[in-house]
Design a protein that fits this description.
The chain is mainly alpha-helical and 262 residues long. It has a domain of 177 residues. 69% of the residues lie in helices and 2% in strands. The chain has a two-stranded antiparallel ribbon with strand order 1-2. Helix 5 runs antiparallel to helix 11. The longest helix is centred in the N-terminal third of the chain and has 30 residues. The radius of gyration is 19 Å and the shape is globular. About 2% of the residues have low confidence.
């Protein structure tokens, strides 16, 4: 249970939003949110990265904010671009990918695109393996490989070197962290182009299709750095649940509208 000091030190949602905006201006690999670690007991870096920053009510607030922005701003822009370019979403409305969207994608995509932001040397071997897992999808042996990769990362196997003890490495990475942060969000967004049948859409219009994913990737990257990878995975799952639930409600209770949307 969190102690009274943790509760008092927790920033408000508005303060977190301001911190997010400041972070976008000057991304840095240092710094955690106040009150991130619950209780007085000591936990190691792996546990803290996965479990200490998960506050469901606050993550739900971020999910609600993202849904609102995507519904009223980035979503309409993406729909306009899709209509103008003749692209169509690949989702099968009669076979919604619940497990993939809520469990598999949040876990493997966060590990592939954002885990390495705070562990850059470990990322040298971890990220390529995770990208391979993302591309291959949730097959039997791939799931086994995922478990092995996570275990190796947890145990510190194949680490490329002691990052925290290497001052030059830390200085160089800190100076270039902004590039790593934004490239991770761009890579995450670009991957979602695979969700569309692009047709004859010109290349210069394609970024508009994945504006919602780019914005979400920026928030997830900030969450990863400020609260930990576990919090980013949970928020990713929450974010995916909203649109999927909306589609399910339309298909179930307004099938005619669903047919028009196809």
């Amino acid at each position: 249970m969190p102690n009274k000091s943790d509760v008092r030190n927790r920033p408000s949602f508005l303060r977190e939003m301001r911190d997010f905006v400041r972070f976008l201006r000057h991304p840095t690999p240092s710094g955690r949110l106040a009150g991130r670690v619950s209780g007085a007991r000591s936990i190691d870096g792996w546990q803290a990265d996965w479990f200490a920053g998960i506050r469901l009510t606050r993550l739900l607030q971020w999910a609600l904010a993202l849904w609102a922005i995507n519904l009223f701003v980035t979503g309409p822009l993406a729909v306009t671009a899709a209509s103008a370019g003749g692209s169509v979403h690949r989702m099968d409305l009669n076979n919604l990918p619940w497990l993939t969207a809520l469990l598999w994608a949040p876990l493997v995509e966060e590990l592939a695109f954002r885990y390495g932001l705070r562990r850059p040397l470990q990322a040298l071997w971890f990220v390529p393996l995770m990208l391979f897992i993302v591309v291959m999808g949730p097959k039997g042996w791939i799931i086994g490989l995922l478990v092995l990769v996570i275990f190796l990362a947890w145990r510190g196997v194949l680490n490329a070197g002691p990052y925290m003890g290497d001052t030059q490495w830390r200085r160089d990475y800190s100076q270039r962290f902004g590039w790593a942060f934004h490239l991770s969000a761009l890579g995450f967004a670009g991957m979602h182009l695979n969700n569309f049948n692009l047709g004859a859409m010109p290349y210069w219009m394609m970024p508009a299709l994945v504006l919602p994913q780019y914005l979400t990737g920026l928030v997830l990257g900030w969450i990863r750095m400020r609260r930990g990878i576990g919090a980013a995975v949970v928020l990713h799952g929450m974010f995916n649940a909203g649109p999927l639930l909306l589609v399910w409600l339309i298909v179930t209770y307004a099938p005619e509208a669903a047919k028009l949307a196809q």
